[in-house]
Amino acid sequence: MQSGKIKHYSSDKGYGFIDVDEQNEEVFFHVSNVRLSQPITVGQRVYFNSERNHKDQLRATEVTDASLSIEESSAKVNHASIRSN
């Protein structure tokens, strides 16, 4: 997952942009792809997966915060351990 901070968010329109850490590119996100433990705020640190659309623009496919990112990662590891036994 990549990391960054919320640069802009329009609650009325349900979308915003993430300022990606150590990159000069923004990532578009829609509220339907956001799973956060608290409301979306400008400056909030987030973790995300992204892909390029047909116009070569980065779009977030999943946006989460540190606590959910860590929980999900450990759940995947635990699930993988159970399957291999």
Description of the structure:
The protein is of the alpha+beta class. It has one domain: Nucleic acid-binding proteins (OB fold (Dihydrolipoamide Acetyltransferase, E2P), Beta Barrel). 22% of the residues lie in helices and 44% in strands. The chain has one helix spanning 66-84; strands spanning 2-10, 15-20, 26-30, 34-35, 45-52, 58-64. A six-stranded mixed sheet has the order 3-2-1-5-6-4. The longest helix has 19 residues, at 66-84. The protein is globular, with a radius of gyration of 14 Å. The two termini are 27 Å apart. Residues 73-85 have low confidence and may be disordered.
What brief labels describe this structure?
single chain, 85 residues, alpha+beta, OB fold (Dihydrolipoamide Acetyltransferase, E2P), 22% helix, globular, disordered C terminus
Question: Which CATH-level-2 architecture?
Answer: Beta Barrel
What is the residue-averaged pLDDT?
A: 83
Count up the helices.
Answer: 1
Q: How are the strands of the biggest sheet laid out side by side?
A: 3-2-1-5-6-4
> Shape from CA axes?
globular
CATH superfamily: Nucleic acid-binding proteins
Beta-strand residue percentage: 35-45%
Helix content range: 10-25%
Radius of gyration: 14 Å
The helix/strand series, from N terminus to C terminus, equals EEEEEEH
Tell me how many strands there are: 6
> What would CATH call the class?
Mainly Beta
User: Which regions are unreliable across 5 or more consecutive residues at pLDDT < 50?
Assistant: 73-85
How widely separated are the two ends?
Answer: 27 Å
